[in-house]
Amino acid sequence: xxxxxxxxxxxxxxxxxxxxxxxxxxxxxxxxxxxxxxxxxxxxxxxxxxxxxxxxxxxxxxxxxxxxxxxxxxxxxxxxxxxxxxxxxxxxxxxxxxxxxxxxxxxxxxxxxxxxxxxxxxxxxxxxxxxxxxxxxxxxxxxxxxxxxxxxxxxxxxxxxxxxxxxxxxxxxxxxxxxxxxxxxxxxxxxxxxxxxxxxxxxxxxxxxxxxxxxxxxxxxxxxxxxxxxxxxxxxxxxxxxxxxxxxxxxxxxxxxxxxxxxxxxxxxxxxxxxxxxxxxxxxxxxxxxxxxxxxxxxxxxxxxxxxxxxxxxxxxxxxxxxxxxxxxxxxxxxxxxx
Length: 339
Ligand SMILES: [Mn+2]
Prior knowledge:
The protein is of the alpha/beta class. The chain has two domains: about 10-215, inorganic pyrophosphatase (n-terminal core) (Alpha-Beta Complex); about 220-339, Diaminopimelate Epimerase, Chain A, domain 1 (Roll). Helix content is about 40%, strand content about 20%. The protein has helices spanning about 10-20, 35-50, 85-90, 110-115, 145-155, 165-180, 190-200, 205-215, 220-230, 250-255, 300-305, 325-335; strands at about 25-30, 55-60, 75-80, 95-100, 120-125, 135-140, 235, 240-245, 275-285, 285-295, 310, 315-320. A six-stranded parallel β-sheet has the order 3-2-1-4-5-6, sandwiched between helices. Strand 8 (about 240-245), helix 10 (about 250-255) and strand 9 form a beta-alpha-beta unit. The radius of gyration is 20 Å and the shape is globular. Manganese (II) ion (MN) binds near residues 100, 127, 147 and 179. Manganese (II) ion binds next to loops.
């Protein structure tokens, strides 16, 4: 494995040659795909198609509807609905892109077939810390705002920036927009804006992307947001920590659909003193947890210690199989560690 931002140019030369020789590629991303994983995948898909390579984007479970306007979204296949067909694609691939995840277990049920293909050239492009060694080339920069930003960097290193077109630019822009919380997280850098400006030069219209991504909610989603903030939000330690617990019954009351709680965890951070925000949602008997923090509070370490999770300093995830009540108790007992 070659790990790090500064993979040698020799590594990129090899990657470029492998891509040129490839006939069948698959592009995989993590469970509960988001704007960054789908945007990055669709950008790479357009690139490979231009190279005359058969390419398929496969996600472990369905991609959220707010991305359906992206050119290529309808071609995305998901393993949950088409397990056999997806597995065939992965088995027959001679080139595999693993985007926006740092550990093969993040692809859920696709892990086995991904690992059983030992002949494909595997590339990992990602920005999560502590990557597992599982690909031939791991182009990982934990300081990058998003994997989408790294797709641009990757194309630059393999000298393929000339392939960028509007569809790719929209996909990359969407990945950056959603993973930076609309350019407001600390991961937003000069480089982020530089790449964004190039996407705009290619024809991306920021207001149009914003409307497509954020102004496409159902009325039920907006009511769920209202309910979560009015009824569910709890504040602890002088309003320095916020928790929003939503159980399965509450979610179904608002006809919950995949993606409906996306971004919800960020709202409590707008309260003056809140340093940490935690969202708990119940699905299939599991409690899914999202953590956000301001400044130097490492929610990834907390998520790892108690909830089999991980992620970034200011944005992490975790999971609990102990039910809502017990999970809340465990959280409340240990919250002070976060301050
Ligand atoms: Mn990402």
